[in-house]
Amino acid sequence: MARVPVAAPHHIRRASATLARRYRALRPRPAAELVPTPRSWLRTLGMAAVVLLGAWLGLLAVGDVRVPVGPMDTTMALRPSLTGGTKINVSPLGDLRLNSHEAPVRLDVTVDQLDPVRAQALVDHPERISGLQQEIAHDVAHGTLDLAVRSCVAVVLGATGLALAVYRRPRRALAAGGLALALLAVSGGTAYATWNPKSVLEPKFSGLLSSAPSLVGNARNIVTEFDVYQKELARLVTNVTKLYDVTSTLPAYEPDPTTIRVLHVSDIHLNPASWKIIASLVEQYRIDVIVDSGDTMDHGTAAENGFLDPIADLGAPYVWVRGNHDSRTTQRYLERMKNVHVLDDGRAVTIAGLRFAGTGDPQFTPDRSVAPGGDRAEELAGARLAAALRDQKAAGTPVDIAIAHEPVAARETDGEVPLVLAGHVHHEATEIMKYGTRLRIEGSTGGSGLRAVERPDPDPIETSVLYLDRDTRRLQAWDEIRLGGLGRTTAEVARHLVEDNRPGTGATPGATPSAATPSTRPGADPSGSRGTPVPTTP
């Protein structure tokens, strides 16, 4: 009788298979099998790439933390780096780098803006400055802890999500997340072990901040003389806060539609508040053209060029000549802007019905390698401008307004043009010269820039609106606009009426020779009603 084979029960077969696998795992393997194959190397490198890329993407997506530090709003973030350290961005001035640690991660701190509420609190209660150091230390510590937690979550989610998308296996995705967390922990431990608190004494500056040590002293002096620094910081915060408050409170004026309105600005010297003031005046006075008689910059470096970008949005054509603080690099940057007309070497242009001609300053004082030419160089530049004016007149296209930065150069145009504009001296003045040309010198529309915080009585912010007859293209009147400067909260607008030019009248700073009290409220009749300067408080 034949024997029929009987299949083993299911659980017996499964146990046998398990024993077989364990036996094969315990069996000694040939040496050839122990050598990693190219395929295994590729798998390892692929996993490493996924972990690194996923962690980096996670940090970019959710790794930033907004932290208030004293009166400032900042953003902190961790970024991959071969050198480590800390980078503090102060846009648009540049950044400073601290050799704070050595690890494959860098701490980025971006100063976003000055919080007006907290800054005003310091202004109203100067005694709080004494505790500002402890407050900032507490804010930074709190922000760093928050950043560490958020970064851990970010790298785990980034690496896990990317591994799941690539491999589609939960185990590998979890392994990638664990590796990313371990990598961040090792980096953090390395940074902690190599932390150098003294790095703040030796920062590396870039951009406009590269001149900071020469302006405010090096960091070592600030640390050793912190009491003095606290007082200067309080004064700086006070002045800047009040400046920005007053710029939006200028009086309104309804212009006469029969006049051409020219806004004359000069010597802005990198003051960012100037652009807000100019934009406000262009809108309120319906300015037809803006004339800048130079020194828009302070050092003329390429790093400063970004400061000029708001010119494109001022809402009016912008006529510009180079000052002694503006470089050829500055000039080339402005020449590429659509609404800017750069005048140099007597070049003439017609805008809004007026013909302008101008020349750049022949001297560039920030370049210490070039010996300044003094008044002689200015006189030669002015003589070339005067010759260009004569050529324009001979060609039947006489110039209405000439522009030079230095008054010394501008005086050489006497008799060749009805009106010449200049700046440089940081105070307003009007002079009718010997042969009848009116010289109008503008003050500093930037309040002398950063120099304003170096003296107890800062320079005022000054600019003028010129009214010219549309038919004769001659000056009829002008409004002098003056803000009280850093730390002051008044604004004045004074109307000046033009009488016939009388040769030899002489110079009268800020007034026409015949106007005893030439001040009036904006919006008054240009025919000559007079009043008092208008104070404006925020």
From TrEMBL:
GO molecular function: metal ion binding; UDP-2,3-diacylglucosamine hydrolase activity
Sequence intervals crossing the membrane: 44-63, 147-167, 174-195
GO CC term, one of those recorded: membrane
Origin superkingdom: Bacteria
Keywords carried by this UniProt record: Hydrolase, Membrane, Metal-binding, Transmembrane, Transmembrane helix
Source organism (scientific name): Streptomyces nodosus
One annotated GO biological process: lipid A biosynthetic process
Biased composition (Low complexity): 503-524
Keyword Magnesium: no
UniProt region (Disordered), positions on chain: 499-538
Record keyword Transmembrane present: yes
Protein name: Membrane protein
Occurrences of domain Calcineurin-like phosphoesterase (ranges): 260-427
